[in-house]
Amino acid sequence: MWTRERIELTQQRILKTLDKTIYGFDMFGTIHIVVAEPDLIQSILSKEFQNFPNRRQINLNDEFFSNALSIVEGDQWKRIRAVVTPTFATGKMRTMKPIIDSVAEKLIQNIQNNLKPHCPLNMKNFVSAKDNPIIKMARKMFNVDLSVKNMLAIGLL
User: Fold this and answer.
1) How far apart are CA 81 and CA 104, in angstroms?
2) Cα separation of 86 and 152, whole Å?
3) Which residues does UniProt assign to the signal peptide (predicted)?
4) What angle is formed at CA 138 by the lines to CA 124 and CA 144, rounded to 5 degrees?
5) Which of helix, strand or coil describes residue 148?
6) How many CB atoms are closer than 10 A to CB 77?
7) Are 34 and 18 in contact (CB under 8 A)?
8) Residue whose C-alpha is closest to residue 106's, from 81, 131, 130
9) More confident residue, 62 or 138
10) CA distances from 64 to 30, 80, 140 (A)
């Protein structure tokens, strides 16, 4: 099926047409499965995550982002997953949610206050990691060393 429509819109249309919550298709010789059932998605992404280590291959020419958990496969995926799983435990994430919500609201308000018609906005000034309160709080709460030296030591860079 060749179309100029964005893939996610095509997928939504197919889901409505088939009246199903799961379907598969072949794209360039690779089988893809589309899941539109919230409970199943939650199960796949949390409870059964260890059973789905491989995703669509994305070749990035960036050493840092090419090691993202959502991109790596096989043994490298298992190693990184074992390192990050305790850090993102449900209880810790629940504790962080109000902080993240508060910072997100402030960010949105700050952006809206600085919008000017037909004038570009330098987003780096708004979301700079060195000033980001979420990252500062994560360092304290999770006792996470976010230094480049530590990331190199555990193989994330």
Assistant:
1) 26
2) 19
3) none
4) 110
5) helix
6) 19
7) no
8) 131
9) 62
10) 26, 13, 23
